[in-house]
Amino acid sequence: MDSAEDNFKKVIHNDANENVGNYDNVSECSNSEKIGFIPTKENEETGSTSDSDDEDDTNEEAEGAVMQILKEGEDREKEVEDQHYRNTYSILTTEEVTQQASQTEGKDLRVLQHKRGSQRCGKKKHDEFLDKLRLHIWSSLLRAQYVSLFKDFVESEFFVIDGDSLLLMFSDEETQYLNFFYQIECFLQDFTEKGAKYIIVFFKDAEQMYFPYPRFLFLRTALIKHLRHNTGTTVHTEFSNCLSSEWEIFLKKSYPYFIIVSDIGLTSLQADYLHILMAHSLSKKINVVLASGQECDILRVYGYHVESVYKHRAFFQKHEQDLRYACANLVGYQEPSVRLYEHLKLSPKSIQKEVCQAVLLLKQLWPEGSDIRRVVCVLSCAVGLTIYSNMLENADTSMGAKTKQSARGRSKPLSPEEAADLCRMQCLTVAFLLHMPLSQRSQLRILKSCWTNQVLPLIKMQQLCMHFTLTQLNDTNDWKLDLTYLPDLNDDSLLINLAHYYEVKYTEGLEYRKELGKEIENEYQCLWNTVTKLAVSYSFGDAFPIRKTSQLFLDEKQTLFRVNEEEIPNIGLISVKSDLVEEYAGDVLKYLPVLESNDPAVTSLIKHKEFHELRHWHSGRPLTEEYERIQCNADAKSKDPEERRQIQKLQTFRHFYGSTLEDSNSKLIVHQEDVSRTANAAVKKTQKKHKSKAEMIAEENKRRLQTKEEKKEQEQWEALRIPTEKEIKANLTVGINKLEKFLKTLKSKSVKFSVEMTGLSACLEMWKEHCRKEGSQSKDLSKAVQVMRRIHILLEKYHDLLEKQHLQKLTRYLRLLGFENLACTLSGQTGESNDQNISKYAIKVGPARFQLQYMDYYLLREERNDPDPRVQHFIPDTWQRELLDAVDNNESAVIVAPTSSGKTYASYYCMEKVLKTSNDGVVVYVAPTKALVNQVVGTIYSRFTKKLPDGLAMCGVFTRDYRNDVMNSQILVTVPQCLEILMLSPRCQKWTKRIQYVIFDEVHCLGSEIGAEVWEHLLVTIRCPFLALSATVSNPEHLTEWLKSVKRYWQHADSIIEGSSVNSEENFTRKFKGKSKVQGHKKSYRVRLVLYEERYNDLEKYVCSLKGSDFMIEHYHPCAALTVDHIENYGIPSDLSLSPRESIQLYDTMVKVWQEWPRAQELDPEEFVSFKNKVVIKKPDVRKYEQELKKELSEWIVLGQRQKVNELLEHLKPKPVDCSEHEKWRHLASFVDKLWEMNQLPAIFFIFNVDSVENAAKNVFFNLLKRQRSERDPNTESKKERLRDELKKVNKTLIKFNPRDTKKMSSNKIENIQLLLAKKKQLEKRLKRLTAIPSGCTYADPKAVDEDTLRKIFGRLRFERRGYLQRTMALRGIGYHHGSMTAKGRQVVEMLFRLGYIKVVTATSTLALGINMPCRSVVFAEDSVFLDALNYRQMTGRAGRRGQDMIGNVFFYDIPLPKVERLIKSNVPQLKGQFPLTLSLILRLMLLTSKADDKADAKAKALSVLKHSLMSFRKERYAEILKVYFMFSLQFLIKEGYLDQKGNPIGFAGLVTHLYYHEPSNFVLVSFLVKGLFHKLCRPIKGSTVFSEDVLEKLVLILANLFGRKYLPACSMKYKHRFFQSKVFLEDLPEEFADAVNEYNTKVQENFAHFLLTTARLANMEQEYRLPLSKTDFTSKDWHGSELASYLMDTTKSISAISPFACLSGVADNDLFHGEIIDKAVLHSLGINVTNCPLFYLEKYDKHGRRMPLNAYALDFFKHGSLVALTTDNWLNEGDAYYLLKDFSLLIRSIGMSLSELCDDPNDHVLLAFQQLGKIYQEKLNSAT
């Protein structure tokens, strides 16, 4: 295909040199004579030509300049630059220079621009800095990450679009005026529909750069005016440039999430200006998104995201003056002057002046105003004609001879009459625009032509006039103008059609003279008459005839009509005889044409043998699925001893690993008859009135046992009471901790009550002692908190044991604290105490404020006291009981509850129920990650033990790289992709019927970017009940409604299946004994929604920054994240919760900010209705107060107190200090020490870069080592050495004595041996003391884990590559955790952290998703694009250990404050459906229905997948589109030989479905195999079966092009770079392989085009004739037709599936057969884009037409085997590189496995090559890690 970059260049060249009226063919008509805008002489001197010699010179100069920059050693040391910046040696700017050079060749129209104060002495420095700026931006862009742009901030945060970048994105050569606006509106509307909030900024100074390009200047002005007046988009034009103080104030105030900027401009000058904008934005902590390279699907927009880091701020600070100087030089031009035909001079000021006069005159002529199209037309024509005539008159006649001589080299100017002819046609064009509907205009014939060189300058002058006209109309607010049709001021295609008609056809005779039509004629007459009235100085004749001169305006040689030579192939479907097809798509088949059986398309179908699931069609060899490639572990008797030992070892470890997750021992499960009945009986047992004798005896025995235990506990307490009281008085914190630890060991409520009363008395005595000691000074209220806390516990938990004397005592204590009102409430009496001693112990704070502000997280939660017999170890909350009820009733449930709230308990209750019910029932637990799978398996082994018959296992695992006991386990723990394999496999249907429950953990992954459709497939294919768990779903109601509709479908389907397959069910029951009992449970299709929003522990946030060598740790109030606009537009987020003290802080600030606040008294804590005189204020009471304060805050804005709210929010904000990246990491260890001092460990430090994770942990470790060295005795080493020597001597002596044989020894020898053994023990003890790590030099808690357990855990690191380092760090209480580690390494860290031994863990997001790693604090130590609202909530969920911590803490360590604000206030994403169908999925469904034993069940599953996509839920039109897509996908599969006409799989269907997650590469791979391309390539070394390095390298090249596709930004190819080991840019496929890809693409495009043409009837045509964002309607109801208009139409042009706006640019239906045009052309209301077409792009281009190269990481690694090289050369971080390579290696092995099953010859060269490559690649990967 032709590079679209050429088109972009043509636009620039054409606008300057050629025909702006028609861009279809301008490049062809400029060879003879080019017309352009010429820069000044200064610019000419700096420009360069496109000759190769000059290019070399330019490159040498550029290289020299860059090398000079790179040699500045001092600067380089000070700057934080990455490896790429330092290694760059040349910038290829030749293309841009060529652009400038080409602009110097025009002669007929020039724009002269003069730089202000341009000095040659500063030019060199200026150019050098621009080179450095380019390098800086380049190094940032190459690190850009291709991500979903909006993430989860989209609903609450806005971003900025640079207006000039927006204009450049859609500046395409063939795009006409109205279509240009349509495409921009589509782009913006797509953002709007996805929930984005944005503003557009056009900088005033940037306008200067467009004067050489009048068309762009005019478009820019019109676009600004249109967006501002006709859309709801906020457009800013008040900022002069990106370095202006006003812009900086705006950024600081509003802080956008990111700014979309183009990295390429019309010229190198504009590109440099955009680079300055990028540099400035990044320096202000605002991320940048490239305008180029963006793609979108139904849910998301993807793009290259550049994250702001300290390096950007350092660059700006260092070069701020250079940047300002460069910006002033780039945009600081004086007013340009224009020359037409060289000798006609024109100043834009004169145009502006003339426009101003014309507007005043027109206001008199049209006082009522008019349509903007009329106004712009008459003004630009009148002003243009007047100025042009003036110029001709004022030409210097005295230089006639000279002019004659110079005229030979230029075009002759048009005469005024000829110019008037052109203007008349422009008026006629606008007359048609005013009345002719878009439906008619879209049918206009496409005329490829261009203006003559004489006309071009005049058209460009007209565009300048239109620009100044629109600018002038901004100041006419008193004049009523209809600005609705600003996007339709011009139609180039229509103008050229009219010009051609009047030049060619009109003169041929009367038969060609067509009538304009009355309304068009009147309109045109009115317009021209107005033009003549405005141009009062000259007479330009009447309106008719339209052409008064014979001057040719169009180039005859280049004029031709576009003929649609490519005929659209007939749409005819090959009939498919399948029940599934008929039932799903039967209704749409009625209007789809079907081919006859004798049609060539049918008779030429590829004939393959039918594909069988058990044996392949070609080789007849057994075909295995992934789950059958492993053996079962359950039947240990069939194993050899070594294998049995490995199984036992694995199970032992799982028990051990599980013990770190669960405190209780595993429960022995016994098979029971009916668990649900037993459970219900247990619940209802207490309701029985009459008890049997046996029950009475059992109860009596139980009472006796309880009495005995109570007596024992009472004796134990009596022994501890006095020491505990002393401990509390000595150290309150330690004493209370011991007291509470003891309370947890007690069971007797009366003993607990006694302990609490004693604790209360001791705390009060401690408080009194403290008050006496402090006297009148301020007191430590934390001591009083413990008194009040004990009172709360006694009143709430032991109220039934409180007697009168106890209450009197509590009343007295409350009076002592100064809470008289609470004492009265408790005693029921009024009056004040007369005790004078009370006042000195009183708290000088109100009781309500004291409880909220000081008791804070100690406030009690609302908890139930009645136990549930189904739960042993805790009392479940109401919502948890609802879950248990759902499981007991076999119901489904969607559970949305915060992390650590206990929602997963229901999962294990469900497992226990199924284990008890039978030996055949299956529970499937679906987890999103392998780490979570391992955790769940460990928990299962810890909780349950069950003896099963041989061949059955309790628990099985199925992940991509590990599987055991998949088909023979009762609990299968798996990932979604693997369960989908089982659900859609024909041979697993009997197994799927055994499934009784499926548990979906982290179900919000249904909305993730990768793999979301798999979750969707599973939810709709399971017939059994399910539990769907998540902490982060913002629209659970919608999700539940969708799932209810799925269950209704299954209720109906089951009734049909059960009615028609009784016999098969009976056979199945006989085969699986006990199944009848499983099935005997009553089926339920109910889906419950269980919501619980209250987090058990509050989270408090802190912002940390480095100030000098100390840390500023400031509390971050959640409300500080809000802004007035956010509250006004979105309200206060529902999950933005406050702790009690934060509620008090908010109230106090509100009172301080608004002293006359009317509700201040009402909302005072002491007066608030839920607090007043309340002894025990609970968390629910505080929530009411919090909600009331939030409500009042919103009310302030309604009352007009925006300024007060602003002041309040600003007051709450912390003021962190910025620091360098280097300093931040250098002081991380000190920050950990700070947290240790604050008692905030254990903590998880989340860092998103793998290298940084390890380095941060090492940094902390080395800090402890350094501290130990500095503190220890300098003689320690010599002492240790001496002790070791002595110990060695003792051991040698003992060996000589041989103490094991003591019978033959004398008593003296025995005595000597005993002395030696005692000495040895003493030496070892002394040596251990010397080698022990001092307590101040380790964070580890040695009491947490005994030595045997520690040794057992460390034993797993024995053979690990970094095992010694991990062990040494763990002994200091430090660990790290990331996905690139081995499973053993991660498990060691997880276990030691859970046990409390390790206190500091640095980790990536591997610990975010559901992993049980509770801690006291979570620290975000690095910002990242992946730190979004969803990850934030998952990660902070680790903080605050239930039962261990009263509160969780979140620390933001040098995270930009605006990012913190976004994280706190953003909502979690809503779950929305994605486009559900792919070719591979449809093939898998057809395979399932064709080959399954139970056809009815298989068909029901397939129909459920097809009918219940979340995307089409409650959207009938989408559902019908999906049916048509399904039918055309079937057509492709049939034509390509994957299905026969009965829907049976044939040919390579098996291989394609095995690689389904790599579509469309799987289909391309098969096409290579079918064509024998791999066999040609894979030829071994002669005489062997070994393949050469070249063959394997070429094979990796092909596979990397197919499966390892990771695109780089287009700008990466613009620069030359010295790469040390990698090639970086992936080479293209070999020619034969590329040809096969092109053939595949042609077929896919044809099929997709037919799909689009068929679905066109489903489009909303009313919407199609409106602009998508502004809703401007172009249907034009008052059109009465025109003979001329009808003549100009092309009735043969087919445009049924093309947007009428796109038709204006010459796009027709047959263009849909070219994939690159689809997104621009297809009907917008269909909601379909090219991502739904399985095209395989050989080359990919961005919006500017530049090729985006593929990263050659997979091939580069195969060559050098270095992960480090991939980070330095290929712009990948090590973690990402590892994951990519691991997937690539697995893929090679997967293909090799599939080929081994397909191939009947085990020595086939292709098979051997893949096997050899897979082995080598895996070995290289193992060596690298």
CATH homologous superfamily grouping of the largest domain: P-loop containing nucleotide triphosphate hydrolases
Q: How many helices does DSSP assign?
A: 71
CATH fold node name of the largest domain? Rossmann fold
Secondary structural class: alpha/beta
How does the major sheet shape up? 8 strands, mixed
Query: Averaged pLDDT, please?
Result: 81
As residue ranges, the low-confidence spans are 1-106, 401-406, 615-620, 634-638, 674-679, 681-688, 1068-1080
Radius of gyration: 40 Å
Count of individual domains:
9
What does this structure look like?
With 1825 residues, the protein is of the alpha/beta class. It folds into 9 domains: 145-333, Rossmann fold (3-Layer(aba) Sandwich); 345-395 and 411-560, no CATH class; 572-604 and 1478-1566, no CATH class; 714-844; 874-1093, Rossmann fold (3-Layer(aba) Sandwich), CATH 3.40.50; 1111-1212, no CATH class; 1221-1272 and 1338-1465, P-loop containing nucleotide triphosphate hydrolases (Rossmann fold, 3-Layer(aba) Sandwich); 1273-1333; and more. It contains 71 helices and 36 strands. Strands 3, 4, 5, 6, 7, 8, 9 and 10 form an 8-stranded mixed beta sheet that branches. Helix 7 packs across helix 13 and helix 38 (1012-1021) crosses helix 57 (1495-1507). The longest helix has 38 residues, at 693-730. The two termini are 41 Å apart. Residues 1-106, 401-406, 615-620, 634-638, 674-679, 681-688 and 1068-1080 have low confidence and may be disordered.
